[in-house]
Amino acid sequence: MLTSVLGACQQVGLPKLAGNRDDLPLVEDWALRAQRAHMNMLQNLVLFAALVLTAHVAGRANAMTALGAQLFFWARLAYAAIYLAGIPWLRTGAWTVSVIGLILIFLQVL
């Protein structure tokens, strides 16, 4: 989120961002990728949180759920960096690893 805000601030300017944003110009390049990476993380974080909370409440948290959470975290961190760098297929690979982490947690909840 901070990278997205910094990119928008650099390209659009703080006065425009601090205003009502009615006529806010679009950001480009890495700043736009940062916005998309941020939105993608928010979408995936909802599922991650639901799975982790379910595993915890159900008493199913174990070494495999911890591994899944670690895979998710590190893959999402790599995903953000790769997305900012603009490397499409590697980005997809990092996303896939994060989904594998979610699947590991899900399998423990079943």
Could you walk me through the main structural features you see in this protein, from its secondary elements to its overall organization?
The structure is a single chain. The chain is mostly helical and 110 residues long. The chain has one domain (30-109). The chain has 5 helices and no strands. It has helices spanning 2-12, 14-18, 29-57, 63-85, 88-109. The longest helix is centred in the middle third of the chain and has 29 residues, at 29-57.
Defining key terms:
110 residues; mainly alpha; 5 helices; 82% helix
Low-confidence stretches: none
Quickly count the helices: 5
Q: Please report the total strand number as a whole number.
A: 0
Number of domains: 1
Tell me the overall shape: elongated
Along the chain, the helix and strand elements come as HHHHH
Q: State which percent range the strand residues make up.
A: under 5%
Report the biggest beta sheet as strand number plus sense, adding barrel if it closes. Answer: none
Tell me the structural class.
mainly alpha
Mean pLDDT: 92
* Radius of gyration computed on alpha carbons: 17 Å
> What is the first-to-last residue Cα distance?
33 Å
How helical, in percent, are the residues?
A: over 70%
Characterize this entry briefly:
The chain is built from 5 helices and no strands. It has helices at residues 2-12, 14-18, 29-57, 63-85, 88-109.
List the helices and strands and how they pair.
Elements: H1 2-12, H2 14-18, H3 29-57, H4 63-85, H5 88-109
Helix pairs in contact: 1-3, 3-4, 3-5, 4-5
